Amino acid sequence: MTELDDYAGVPRYVQVARILESEIRSGVWKPGSAVPSVTVLYQRFEIARTTASKAHARLAERGMAVPSPGIGMIVTPRARWAQPED
């Protein structure tokens, strides 16, 4: 399980999205592959399913992944990605 910092002043869903974004950028998931499902995120980070869903939504907002019915969130081509956050 990856630890989240409850004292970071950053919402948990943002922390999860940043971890996933880092993993996408480092090649853990390549464009066209699926990122972990809400259920997997909820188990990995010990978070609520709504928090995991919000992390997925943040990835979509940043152009990192798009929802694909029946498959989940799919990593987009690198050209669509937003710049990394500080």
TrEMBL record:
<protein>
    <submittedName>
        <fullName>GntR family transcriptional regulator</fullName>
    </submittedName>
</protein>
<dbReference type="GO" id="GO:0003700">
    <property type="term" value="F:DNA-binding transcription factor activity"/>
</dbReference>
<dbReference type="InterPro" id="IPR050679">
    <property type="entry name" value="Bact_HTH_transcr_reg"/>
</dbReference>
<feature type="domain" description="HTH gntR-type">
    <location>
        <begin position="10"/>
        <end position="78"/>
    </location>
</feature>
<dbReference type="GO" id="GO:0003677">
    <property type="term" value="F:DNA binding"/>
</dbReference>
<keyword id="KW-0804">Transcription</keyword>
<dbReference type="InterPro" id="IPR000524">
    <property type="entry name" value="Tscrpt_reg_HTH_GntR"/>
</dbReference>
<keyword id="KW-0238">DNA-binding</keyword>
<dbReference type="Pfam" id="PF00392">
    <property type="entry name" value="GntR"/>
</dbReference>
<dbReference type="InterPro" id="IPR036388">
    <property type="entry name" value="WH-like_DNA-bd_sf"/>
</dbReference>
<keyword id="KW-0805">Transcription regulation</keyword>
<dbReference type="InterPro" id="IPR036390">
    <property type="entry name" value="WH_DNA-bd_sf"/>
</dbReference>
